[in-house]
Amino acid sequence: VASLPELISNKQQNSLRCHMFHHERFFTFLGFEIVNSVFELSHSVSLGKSIKTEFLSRCIGHFCRIGKADHLFSVFIPSFVAKIKTDFVMQRILQKVFSGIPDVFMEGVLTCLFRAWPVRCNLVHMLGDLVLAKPKAKFVILYKLLLVKHYTTYTVPINVISYISKVDPKHMCAVETLGKVLEVWSSSSSIKHTSYEQHRYLTAVILLCVKHVDEISDQKFKDELMLALMSGMKHHLESPDEKVRLLGMLVGEKLTSALHIESGEAKLEFEFTKTEDTNLLLEIFNCHPSLPDQEFYNEQAKLLSSFVEMAKVKQIPLSTKDDVTQESSRNTDKENKTLCDSDDSDDDLIPFDLPQETTFTKTPRPMYIRDCLEGLTENEDREKMEIYLHCVDELIHKNVLATKEVAVELCKVMLNLQNSYSIEEFDVLRRRAITSAVVCNPMQVATYLTGEFYSEHYNLQQRMDILDILVMSAGRMSGISSVPKKAVNEDLDKKTDVSENQTSNMVLDKPWKQIVQERIDKKTRRFGKVEVKKATPIPTADEFGPVAGYFFFPLMASYDLKIRTLDLLGTDTIVLGRLLYALGTILYSAASSMVAHKMSSSLLEFIVPLRSHVEPFVRKACVFCISMAVVSSLAITEELCEDILEAREWLCGVINTDDDSQTRLAALDALRTLDVKARKELGTNNIAT
Question: Pseudo-torsion of CA 139, 143, 144, 150, nearest 10°?
Fold first, then answer.
């Protein structure tokens, strides 16, 4: 029956084209016939006759095996979703049909059924106790669909967990599933060697199990779950990927709350930023699908009727000539009205600047950078600390020469400064001040920061702050930063001078001829294309190139050093990944300098032993470094030929074999960038290998 379309097409040889035997229509028709057969069997049972369902079971299994399940279940599900709720005879017939499916077809049938079944209805009416009666069905439902496969949507795990919780009122099957999934979720090997999408899928399965399991009475099993959870929490919180850490925090909170820990033991609570993934998982955990109502059954009936009758396409009436004329005149009147309104607008009037109210404080603002440094060192009063933090960046730009003398000392104080008073934007102000100090005296301050990065007196957050400060400073000095660069050798004007001269500055910024021409262009209506003159770029001096080596090479000097508070090649992989990203960004900032070639070669050589790292975060950082080396080099086919060829071969291997999907996509983008640049340099369509 399944091969009938091919047999007919081979016999006819296109002499007679019958649309009935097109695959989509043919298998939809077979779906209707299977539905009619089930109704006939139900009628026979009501008459007291015996029935056999083996042929229907084999047909459904074979159709799903050859990939026609979508056409079959698109008719099958709407036909029975409302009927099986009250018709117990049809329930028994369908349960017998699915239990009679051969084991070789079982995986294809159950996978397609759980994907297509609506989440508001439960599959227990159609499948019965199939998961408990047949080992093959249990293997597919509890192992293949939950642990091996993963899907972009959560329809399958919702249907699976709701089904096993209904088929087993004591929830023993759901509790057993929770233990197995939690064991896989807690494994460090699973975290490192599976994609983030699959790990998020396992997290959703755990939350659904916790949601459906009301209470676990076995204390021994509760202890096993807590032991697995604590082990998994350790591996998740040590992961360099922030999204993986968020999944660990979410599961830790919900599972410890569900285990009903005694009052003497504290429950896990985390403060984390909610993302799109965490919001979706929380929605799945907190959402309770409503039972199907009459409106739902009406929608299923409409869906079924759409397969029975062809939809009629209504023709859109064409507009007449009078309608077109009226519409065009209406648009013309609207344009004229808009033009008149624009002539009378007050857009050219300069707004009057109102003076801002200043908050009265007992602590005066510091006037010199040394006074500010002493106040930050004392750290006595919250109000004083907040005022000095807001003033330090302004004082640095106000007197650059004085800042150069105390730049290293200022960085030392700001780097070790603690937010004892919970000041808002404390980290932003601190990083901004240190970055300004680096820009004022880049050679000495960069040497100090790169040396302190491998010191044992700092925690991981301070080391990552050092990397961020070096990256921000490199961006500001090279001119590629999104933050506008201030001229460090210009004194800041006082606020009173700015408010008094604001009106005159707004006018004097542009010549009067340019202002008049802009007003004429604004009032003039032009027909056709208008040539837009591109602004001539203003050349600026490269301040970062001469000092780029002080930012770059010391960071690679002691990466294999193992000290008490830092082990880059061991547990502190998040700092290692951030270090690679910082090196790549600093290299990109120095792309126009003479030392860029040496930096690119050193970076490509530096990442060779790190390219096979077990953490996807580090491997993705290596891909980023290769991209930055390609973009920053002037001639990769001449200067970095051997290193680039080796890196290209590794990128091809990452695309084909890496476990992490994001790393594969990053490697694909890097490979495209490398090939495009190599073709431009060689002037051919192929890369010389």
Answer: 160
Full 3-state SS string of 419-433: CCCCCCCHHHHHHHH
The alpha helices in 344-456, defined as continuous H runs, are 369-378, 382-398, 400-415, 426-440, 442-453
Q: Tell me the per-residue pLDDT of 172-187, one tens digit each, with 9 for 90 and over.
A: 888 888 989 999 999 9
pLDDT, average across residues 190-198:
87
Q: Which residues contact 689 (CB under 8 A, 6 or more apart)?
A: 645
The interaxial angle of helices 460-478 and 442-453, nearest 10 deg, is 150
Q: Which residues of 611-626 are buried (b: 16+ CB within 10 A; e: fewer)?
A: bebebbbbbbbbbbbb
Q: How far is CA 46 from CA 50, 99, 308, in A?
A: 10, 21, 27
Cα angle 334, 337, 339; round to 5: 110
Would residue 54 count as lying in a domain?
A: yes
Domain count, the chain: 2
Contacts with 16 (C-beta within 8 Å, 6 or more apart), sequence order? none
Domain boundary among 489, 516, 543: 516
Q: Are 122 and 162 in contact (CB under 8 A)?
A: yes
- Boundary-marking domain end, from 516, 545, 561: 516
Give the domain range for residue 7: 1-149
Q: What share of the chain is helix, strand, coil (3-state, %, to 5)?
A: 65, 0, 30
Residue 143 near residue 103 (C-beta atoms within 8 A): no
Burial letters 390-413, b for 16+ CB under 10 A, else e: ebbbebbbbbbeebbebbbebbbb
Inside any domain, residue 630: no
| Measured distance CA(92)–CA(79) in Å, rounded | 16
Helix (H) or strand (E) run with residue 566 in it: strand 566-567
| Residue 567 bridge partners (DSSP) | 562
Q: Which residue is it, tokens 């040539």? A: 531
In whole angstroms, give the CA distance from residue 178 to residue 119: 20
Give dist(CA 339, CA 451) in Å, integer: 64
- Crossing angle (nearest 10°) for helices 103-116 and 54-65: 70
**CATH code (residue 452):** 1.25.40.720
Residue 452 CB-density burial (10 A; 0-12 exposed, 13-18 middle, 19+ buried):
middle
Q: Phi, psi (5° rounding) for residue 230?
A: -65, -40
Give the pLDDT confidence of 450-501 residue by residue, as tens digits: 999 999 888 899 999 999 999 999 999 888 753 333 333 333 343 334 333 4
